Amino acid sequence: MTAASTPPMIRMAGVDKFFGPLHVLKDVQLEVPKGQVVVVLGPSGSGKSTLCRAINRLEPIDSGTIEIDGQPLPAEGKELAQLRADVGMVFQSFNLFAHKSIVDNVMLAPVKVRKTPAAEARKSAMALLERVGIANQADKFPAQLSGGQQQRAAIARALAMRPKVMLFDEPTSALDPEMVQEVLDVMTTLAKEGMTMLVVTHEMGFARKAANRVIFMSDGEIVEDSTPEEFFSAPKSNRAKDFLGKILTH
Amino acid sequence: MGVLTNNLTLFRDGFATTLQLFLYSAVLSLLLGTFLAMLRVSPVPVFRAIGTTYVTVVRNSPLTLVFGFFVFAYPYLEIIKFDFFTSAIVALTLYTSAFICEVVRSGINTVPVGQAEASRALGLTFPQMLGSVVLPQALRSVVPPLVSTLIALLKNTTIAAGFSVSEAGAIRDSLSEQGANMLLGLTWIAFGFVVLVIPLTLLQRVLEKRWSVAR
């Protein structure tokens, strides 16, 4: 497999991003090949959410290049919308459309963006809801569902676009503890099926179990880039050791 | 009662014209107002500037002045000739849209930013995001002020009487020519407006119930 014939699914090169005087992404270099599951760890404020959101340009960057499947991110507009359609995103706060039923949430983008006929879109939406285990909630509104169910619906909504890659921005951080597992189960299945995934999370269990690769960020920099086994058993940097010490002791 | 029964046609025609003025202007200002609100939240600076300028100029002008402009000044431009009725609709629409725009915009501001982010992440374009996600939620949250603006519009139609449109506001002139009892006459006109406003209030209640968005 040469780099020229198959470009990486995500490529970030020399990416810098500032929030005012704050340097939140510092010369980030990252390549994620197809099918890889990358977990991004790091203390809060380390830039990991910004990294995730920069990949589909929800956060514009100040310098550097980002490519999805070999295609550089265009400026805001139709082309960017097309590219985003191929990049699934799951948010910490679910962001389901509050005025639409669950099945309508899942159907909306396929109908509007892909121009899929409504009947067909509904059928695949129901199949996806079945897959994430909430087909019986299809006609309810988001506010009527538990957090875990809402997040699974949000994953189904992203999958409905048949994305090439899925971005997860702290998908379980807003959930009650007993609902975390049901969401992680869906994500683990997705990882096993070969989806390219970049997951910002604090779930070490998921990182160990489902990730091929762990990236540790601190102060806007990628400090470590290794396998889960290596990272958890023998972190190289002091910052990673310090971080693991804090989260693994309780 | 005599004032009303002796002038039934006068009252009927007057309020029929009022209702027509209202319905045309209401639909048109809802459309134009929503469009202006879209301009005001657009990512394109020029569009935002157009929306802001419109609202600043029109919202700060007295309605009589807007009417005066359309009835007396606009004809000098010799573009399209409007009759008095159409001029009244144009004036009411231009004026009311500025208010509708601000109501809709405040509704847009109540929609959490995550809704727009989720739409963008799914590949919806800006117009698709507004049309399918943001505006439906925005309109649902501003039903009461929207209906208030429409009620104000209904009552503002009486200005048209001063510009040669025989709507309900003009009934008074005819009554006073007849030497009819003005106390009774004006009371009946007021009653007519109350009757017209009640359906709007009911509509508000129904919409609020049906559209209550749980978050």
TrEMBL record, chain A:
The keyword Membrane is assigned to this record: yes
Domain called ABC transporter: residue spans: 10-244
Statement: the UniProt record of this protein carries the keyword Methyltransferase: no
Matching InterPro entries: AAA+_ATPase, ABC_ATPase_HisP-typ, ABC_transporter-like_ATP-bd, ABC_transporter-like_CS, MetN_ABC_transporter-like, P-loop_NTPase
Catalytic activity: a polar amino acid(out) + ATP + H2O = a polar amino acid(in) + ADP + phosphate + H(+)
Topology with respect to the bilayer: Peripheral membrane protein
Keywords: Amino-acid transport, ATP-binding, Cell membrane, Membrane, Nucleotide-binding, Transport
Location relative to the cell: Cell membrane
Alphabetized SMART domains for the sequence: AAA
Enzyme Commission designation: 7.4.2.1
Gene Ontology molecular functions: ATP binding; ATP hydrolysis activity; ATPase-coupled polar amino acid-transporter activity
UniProt cross-references to SUPFAM superfamilies, sorted A to Z: P-loop containing nucleoside triphosphate hydrolases
Record GO cellular component, one term: plasma membrane
One Pfam short name: ABC_tran
Top-level taxonomic group: Bacteria
Principal EC category: translocase
Family stated for the protein in its record: Belongs to the ABC transporter superfamily.
PANTHER family registered for this protein in UniProt: AMINO ACID IMPORT ATP-BINDING PROTEIN, GLUTAMATE_ASPARTATE IMPORT ATP-BINDING PROTEIN GLTL
Protein name: ABC-type polar-amino-acid transporter
TrEMBL record, chain B:
One cellular component (GO) term of this entry: ATP-binding cassette (ABC) transporter complex
Single Gene Ontology BP annotation: amino acid transport
Domain ABC transmembrane type-1: 15-204
Keywords: Amino-acid transport, Cell membrane, Membrane, Transmembrane, Transmembrane helix, Transport
InterPro entries in alphabetical order: AA_ABC_transptr_permease_3TM, ArtM/GltK/GlnP/TcyL/YhdX-like, MetI-like, MetI-like_sf
Alphabetical list of Pfam families matching this protein: BPD_transp_1 (PF00528)
Topology in membrane: Multi-pass membrane protein
Record's keyword annotation contains Cell membrane: yes
Superkingdom per UniProt: Bacteria
Compartments it resides in: Cell membrane
Transmembrane regions listed in the UniProt entry: 21-41, 61-77, 84-105, 182-203
UniProt-recorded Gene Ontology molecular function terms: transmembrane transporter activity
The keyword Cell membrane is assigned to this record: yes
Protein name stated in the entry: Amino acid ABC transporter permease
Source species taxonomy: Bacteria, Bacillati, Actinomycetota, Actinomycetes, Pseudonocardiales
